[in-house]
Write a structure and sequence with these properties.
The protein is of the alpha+beta class. The chain folds into 2 domains: about 100 residues, no CATH class; about 250 residues, Endonuclease/exonuclease/phosphatase (Deoxyribonuclease I, Chain A, 4-Layer Sandwich). Helices cover about 40% and strands about 20% of the residues. The protein has 13 helices and 12 strands. A hairpin with a 2-residue loop joins β6 and β7. The longest helix is centred in the first third of the chain and has 33 residues. The chain starts with a helix and ends in an 8-residue tail after the last strand. About 35% of the residues are buried. Keywords: DNA damage, DNA repair, Endonuclease, Exonuclease, Hydrolase, Magnesium, Membrane, Metal-binding, Nuclease, Transmembrane, Transmembrane helix. Its cofactor is Mg(2+); Mn(2+). GO terms for molecular function: endonuclease activity; exonuclease activity; metal ion binding.
Length: about 375
């Protein structure tokens, strides 16, 4: 087919399309035709948006920190993904009610699965009676001179584990505000305050050239030995600050054989280290003969690969018994997309199969870098069953 024939065929097709539109407008009117096209556009835009949300959820969980681009996306304010839903809701309300129902169901699922919203009416009162162990955790490094006491007094924890608090046990011992914790100890950057005797403490192994990312404490809880791991994985702040100016795209562009492959590999080294550090902690927990609780600042958003890797072995107290979104970081920000508050959940209380979570409360309003959380756990058994 020569060029003139192709041009003639295109003109014929356009002519037929034009005649069809004119005929439709004469039969239905231009207004009805416009409404039909708007309904069609609204439906397919809604379906595309839903597909993006589902894809984002799957990619975040299954790839996450294993790729520099998806790792970067994990740390963005979730409001970015919510914003398109607002105009879409208005469009579907006016033009396509069935699409509105589908959009509403998708957003409810997205809020629960991706954003981690949980509905729990429990207050701060102590639950579980004498059989419950309440564990509080907080990265207290950049606390902006904000005290933990109001939240501590409200939740009445049995044990507090603090990260970025090297040698702080002596300071808490001198303070009369923590007199309910007669047992205190600092190991490296980790400090534990306990109502019950501390029997053991030891730092975990680490990657070559790196400092240990966790400390294992053993407490005597009413005659029962419990292993409590205080965890603090490396902060990704510097890597994220570098990536935000465009290098995060190397995760997509840096395919093998391209000029950006080496840059992608250099970026990925940090995230590989994060995964390896988490694996070290999980390996120690798998070998532990005691009921285990792992608490601290994991620097891993709950929508990512590291969190999924951990929750294949341990349970997340917020996911099981939390309230709201459970956001812990950053405690204060000027970012309008988070309304001045936190938008990530990177601080956790995890536990193994010996425990059951009946409550998890996140500190509501302290403007420190990290907000604390307290989980109420009940010990279900004492003997570790064989795998």
């Amino acid at each position: 087919m020569d060029a003139e024939t192709k041009v003639a065929a295109k003109r014929a097709w356009l002519a037929r399309a034009g005649h069809a539109l004119i005929e439709a407008s004469e039969n239905e009117g231009c207004g009805m035709l416009l409404v039909r096209w708007l309904r069609f556009l609204t439906l397919w835009t809604t379906l595309l948006y839903i597909a993006v949300l589902v894809g984002l959820t799957l990619v975040s969980s299954w790839v996450g920190e294993r790729n520099p681009t998806t790792a970067f996306l994990l740390f963005l304010p979730p409001a970015i993904w919510w914003l398109p839903a607002l105009p879409l809701a208005l469009m579907t309300l006016c033009l396509h009610r069935r699409a509105l129902c589908l959009l509403a169901l998708t957003m409810a699922w997205f809020g629960y699965d991706f954003l981690g919203w949980r509905w729990n009416l429990s207050g701060h009162e102590r639950e579980g009676g004498n059989d419950a162990l309440i564990v509080m955790t907080n990265n207290h490094g950049q606390h902006m001179n904000q005290s933990l006491q109001p939240f501590k007094n409200a939740t009445q924890p049995d044990v507090i584990v603090l990260q970025e608090s090297p040698g702080k046990a002596s300071s808490y011992e001198r303070s009369g505000n923590y007199a309910e914790f007669p047992f205190m100890q600092s190991v490296r950057e980790h400090t534990i305050l306990s109502r019950y005797p501390i029997l053991e403490s030891s730092a975990l192994a680490s990657l070559p050239g790196q400092s240990p990312k966790a400390v294992r404490f053993v407490i005597d809880w009413k005659g029962k030995q419990v292993a409590l791991y205080s965890v603090h994985l490396h902060s990704p702040r510097e890597t994220l600050a570098y990536q935000k100016w465009g290098p995060f795209l190397y995760g997509i562009l840096g395919l093998p054989g391209t000029p950006w492959a080496e840059k992608r590999q250099r970026l990925q080294q940090f995230w590989n280290g994060q995964i390896a550090d988490a694996e070290i902690v999980l390996a120690a927990i798998r070998q532990d003969s005691l009921p285990v609780i792992a608490a601290g600042d994991f620097n891993a958003p709950h929508i990512g690969y590291i969190h999924r890797m951990i929750t294949r072995q341990l349970k997340d107290s917020h996911a099981e018994a939390g309230q709201g979104f459970g956001l812990t970081f950053p405690g204060f920000t000027n970012n309008p997309l988070s309304a001045g508050g936190p938008w990530m959940r990177i601080d956790y209380v995890f536990y193994d199969r010996h425990w059951e979570a009946i409550q998890c409360v996140t500190e509501p309003d302290r403007p420190s870098q990290h907000r604390a959380l307290a989980a109420t756990l009940v010990l279900k058994d004492l003997e570790r069953s064989p795998d």
